[in-house]
């Protein structure tokens, strides 16, 4: 790592003075000077050059790993402070280093969902394009997370929320919440959302059964009372 920093400092000093953009050839020349490797010819020189540059590759890999982790940490800090635009950008940068990390895609979905609420029609042309672009990004991100880990309960739940509350695609929401509940069988939040999705899909019997499940599962008097009230509303809708 020190070798990388040395080259970076040397290049910064030189190009800061000259005001020029470094070329690849120039950077390679400084690297060769630093490693004391230039046009190796003998077996020993070639072996030595390979070893030195293998160490350089390892240093770069380690640096990239750290950068990716720091971007993720930065994103979570922004997310904790409800700075969703900055968080989204940080997680996008982290994905350049960890493109198969399902957690990063999940966080992108969360941020995109929140950002869709800030997408106002500032130009006053009656367009919701920006909002729906954020929602599409959220769906894509959650789907990508599930492509990597199909048992990722939070991604199923997040995708269900987008379908149920933002896109009014209740049948798709039912599928998502059912998957989430299969993984986290005691999640009261998922049960409530699934009961609502059933209701909005006109599956009244399933909605009633889900509220009954909440009532028999929860230990909270307030939660039980809420479920009983919602169940009553579904019963009224089913009989009218």
**Coarse structural class:** mainly alpha
Helix-strand pattern: HHHHHHHHHHH
Instruction: Give the DSSP E fraction (strand runs of 2 or more residues).
Output: under 5%
Count of strand segments: 0
Helix fraction bin? over 70%
Overall radius of gyration: 27 Å
Sheet with the most strands, sense and barrel status: none
What's the overall geometry? elongated
Q: Termini separation (Å)?
A: 72 Å
Number of helices: 11
Mean pLDDT: 84
Low-confidence segments: 1-22, 26-34
Q: How would you characterize the overall build of this protein?
A:
- By secondary structure, the protein is an all-alpha fold.
- The chain contains eleven helices and no strands.
- Helix 5 packs parallel to helix 7, helix 6 runs antiparallel to helix 7 and helix 9 packs antiparallel against helix 10.
- The N terminus is likely disordered.
Concise description?
With 240 residues, this protein is mostly helical.
List the helices and strands and how they pair.
Blueprint (H helix, E strand, L loop, with lengths): L1 H17 L5 H12 L7 H38 L3 H12 L6 H17 L10 H20 L4 H14 L3 H14 L4 H13 L3 H14 L3 H19 L1
Helix pairs in contact: 1-2, 3-4, 4-5, 5-6, 5-7, 6-7, 7-8, 8-9, 9-10, 10-11
């Amino acid at each position: 790592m020190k070798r990388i920093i040395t080259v970076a400092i040397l290049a910064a000093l030189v190009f800061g003075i000259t005001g020029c953009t470094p070329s690849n050839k120039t950077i390679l020349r400084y690297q060769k000077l630093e490693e004391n490797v230039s046009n190796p010819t003998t077996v020993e020189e070639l072996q030595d050059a390979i070893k030195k540059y293998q160490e350089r590759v390892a240093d770069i890999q380690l640096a990239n790993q750290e950068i990716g982790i720091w971007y993720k940490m930065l994103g979570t800090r922004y997310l904790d402070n409800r700075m969703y635009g900055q968080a989204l950008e940080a997680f996008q940068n982290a994905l350049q280093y960890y493109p198969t990390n399902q957690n990063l895609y999940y966080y992108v979905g969360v941020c995109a969902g929140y950002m869709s609420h800030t997408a106002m029609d500032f130009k006053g042309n009656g367009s919701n394009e920006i909002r729906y672009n954020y929602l599409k990004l959220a769906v894509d991100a959650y789907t990508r997370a599930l492509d990597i880990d199909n048992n990722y309960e939070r991604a199923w739940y997040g995708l269900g929320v987008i379908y149920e509350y933002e896109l009014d695609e209740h049948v798709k929401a039912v599928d998502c919440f059912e998957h989430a509940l299969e993984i986290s069988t005691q999640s009261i939040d998922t049960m409530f959302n699934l009961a609502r999705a059933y209701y909005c899909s006109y599956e009244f019997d399933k909605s009633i059964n889900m509220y009954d499940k909440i009532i028999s599962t929860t230990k909270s008097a307030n939660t039980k009372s809420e479920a009983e009230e919602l169940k009553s509303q579904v019963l009224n809708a089913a009989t009218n």
